[in-house]
Amino acid sequence: MILQLLAPAVLIGIATSGILLATPYLYAALGEMFGQISGVLNLGVEGIMLVAAFAAYYVVYSSGNLIAGLAVAIVVGALMGLLMAFISITLKAEQGISGIGVYLFGLGLSDLLFRVTIGTPTPVNGFPSLQIPFLSDLPVLGPVLFSQNILVYGAFLFVPFSWFALNKTTIGLKIRAVGQTPEAADSLGISVAGVRYLTVTFGGAMAGIAGASLSIALLNIFQQNLTSGLGFIAVALVYFGGWRPLRIMLGALLFSMVSALQLWIQTLGLGLPSDIAGMLPYVLTIIALIFAARQIVTQPTALTKPFERGE
Amino acid sequence: MKVRFMFFALCLVTLLAIVACAPTAQPTAAPAQPTPASAQPTTASGGATKPFRVALLMPSAKNDLSFSQSMYDALVNVQNEMGKDKFEFVYSENMFNVSDAAAAIRDYANKGYDLIIGHGSQYGASLADIAPDFPNQSFAWGTAVDTFESKGIKNIFAYTVASDQGGYVEGVMAAALSKSGTVGYIGPLPVGDGKLTGDGFVAGAKATKPDIKAQTVFVNSFSDVAAASQAAQTQIASGADALAGTSQNMVGAVSVAKDKNVLWFGNDVDQSSLAPNIVVSSQVYDWTLAIKGIMNNIAQGKRGGEVFTLTLENGGLRMVNNPAFKLPDDVKALQDNTIKGIIDGSIKTGVQ
To answer: Do the domains B163-284+318-344 and B24-162+287-310 match in fold?
Structure first.
């Protein structure tokens, strides 16, 4: 059984489909990470992804313009992020609950808009795969790494970008300061609310790309609740990765590759019941979380805590 | 101040969520406004002036190109045949959540609908719970074979589908068209018609080419489109060049098949429109037969206890070929003979 799974075709298959599925997780989770490091937990990622996925799909459905679709998804995502920021930063609402509100809002709105405008699932032509010259001809690695669509490359480039922005720039320093000791940051003249608005809106825009990556790059279709939980897994991946971009990427890859692995186990007829196979990614995530929790993880001290001056 | 703001924000969010969700939660009147609850429930035999009133609960949208749509289409058929003055129906979409559905079922029962259909195998327990309180009305659910008569309940019908038959026909055709020698089935959960269709598909493929590889994979969800797409990638990467699948999330699998130019066999409704270049044929569920059967029973005063099964023989199951796909003559002949064989009993799918 193990030997069959180690066949090159199977390993390449798992890697290819794992890298594809990791794409929406990466955008959503890394975007969410910035918000959390600055002290705001946005549980509404799933809802933002849904509305943006629909917006991108609708633009591509009616105009065929992929770039316009992506741009609209970013704007819609940013606006939804702004809504979350307003509720949690200006109105200082309980973040967990308002995030669920944003999720339900996005779920309902995307479904309503889909039904009013298109109604029945209709495929669109999404981003084609982009062969990187020379590299895509490499044996084994070529098809896995260098013949994906542009949003997949973007997701993986976003990892070093996030790391750099957080650790090597002034704004990264401010984001971390606001999430650790908002009082101190405030006394140094950093606008706590301003930084948090920025990160949550940015996270929304990234969730927007995550949604678009599903509806106009990976699945090329829209349906009610297209994301079915992907956004919540992305939030979990932020904790899983301990607020560090590289570890978030490893988590996203682990999760999506195990979910590809369980499909291969079934496809090859290796005799594992499908319900048990289907549990694999989740069981593995829980185990990994337990081990991750044993390490010293620097959770942003001010996470989920609204900032009140002078308190 | 802070508390007031929080309260305000929560109200705002709740309001937005309710506004956005409202169209899905409220019953939608298909033909006309539902008439107010009458004191005496009407029956089909209750006189020509009163229409037969049906309420339908569906797990997904009425135009999901899948299971929900198959029942919605059937009610529209019956209505077109009988006329809007004789047959009224209302429906609630996206009732996948069983507790929401149970509340809606009770609500419809209170409003006096003659027949309340819970279109999904998850609604059985709720119906068994509610039906005894409304002995003068009828309930139906499927796909299922249990009418709860053993529990003394007399007003529940069940309906199911011998989808192994259509699955078998698809397996025969897939094997005949496959060049790689590998075909695949993608199902939601290994239960009900999701399993039957898959078992039929494998049996049909093996019967046509004994050495063919027929791979089955279940994604453990009716709604996860990304999982269905990943399953299709897996099937194709392992060599399958003809796929079949059931449930509303299969649009994700069709999308991958379209991208990789792999043949697709649809189920529940005619899925040709999803990908005209690759859809070969679809097994279509026509529940009209079950609806009419139930209405006949009610007209004769029998409010439940009967199970209706769609088959190729009784016309509840049909194979609909995609006109845009050029099906080779020999495969078309093979399809016709297989359907004929299943109907006259000379071909058995061998699926339990």
So the answer is: yes
Contact of B237 with chain A, judged by CB distance below 8 Å, is answered with: yes
Domains in chain A with CATH codes = 2-128+150-294 (1.10.3470)
DSSP A27-57: HHHHHHHHHHHTT---TTHHHHHHHHHHHHH
- A311 close contact with B: CB closer than 8 A: no
Task: Delimit the domains of chain B by residue range.
Answer: 24-162+287-310, 163-284+318-344
Question: Do B19 and A108 lie within an 8 Å CB cutoff?
Answer: yes
> Which listed CATH number (3.40.1010.10, 3.40.50.300, 3.30.70.1050, 3.40.50.2300) goes with B24-162+287-310?
3.40.50.2300
Q: For residue B220, what is the enclosing H or E element?
A: none
Q: Do A263 and B234 touch (CB under 8 A)?
A: yes
B16, B225, B273 member nearest A226 (Cβ): B225
Q: What is the 3-state secondary structure (H, E, C) of B147-214?
A: CCHHHCCCCEEEEEECHHHHHHHHHHHHHHHCCCCEEEEEECCCCHHHHHHHHHHHHHHHHHCCCCEE
From the centroid of its chain, how far is CA A54? 16
DSSP B33-50: PPPPPPSS---TTS-TTS
Please state which CATH class domain B163-284+318-344 belongs to.
Answer: alpha beta
Q: How many CA atoms lie within 13 A of B336 on its CB side?
A: 7
ipTM of the complex: 0.87
A chain contacts of residue B258, beta-carbon cutoff 8 Å: 123
Written as tens digits, the pLDDT of chain B (352 aa) is 455 555 555 555 555 554 444 444 444 545 444 444 444 444 444 445 689 999 999 998 898 889 999 999 999 999 999 999 999 999 999 888 899 999 999 999 999 999 999 999 889 999 999 999 999 999 999 899 999 999 999 999 999 999 999 999 999 999 999 999 999 999 998 888 899 999 999 999 999 999 999 999 999 888 899 999 999 999 999 999 999 999 889 999 999 999 999 999 999 999 999 999 999 999 999 999 999 999 999 999 999 999 999 999 999 999 999 999 999 999 999 999 999 999 999 999 988 7
> Which residue in A92, A224, A266 is closest to B218 by CB distance?
A266
HSE on the CB side for A174, CA within 13 Å? 17
Q: Does B245 touch chain A (CB under 8 A)?
A: no
